Amino acid sequence: MNDGVKGFLVEHPRRVFLNLPNLIVMVADPEYILAMKFLSARIDATDGTDIVFLIKALKITAIEEVFRIIEKYYPRRIIKPVTQFFLEEVFSEGADRSGS
Questions:
Q1: pTM of the entire structure?
Q2: Where exactly are the structural domains of the chain?
Q3: pLDDT tens, 82-93?
């Protein structure tokens, strides 16, 4: 795990993805991944594409839905302005930054 992400870990829902005798693989809820990606976002890296993918996968249609999800895990006041501007840009473009 990237050291830069550790500061964003909070209690969150997860499910068993794979259960073997000596290995259990847990996966996080997609809403939690969106919230964590959003707060740790390096928009010029792949995080921006990941955020757009998750918005589409979760069928989110409004910025306030994203904030509602983020606020389930983190206080809104810690959202970086640059990340908030990115989100506004995503919705003004119809969440179509993935190139697909």
A1: 0.71
A2: 30-92
A3: 878 888 888 887
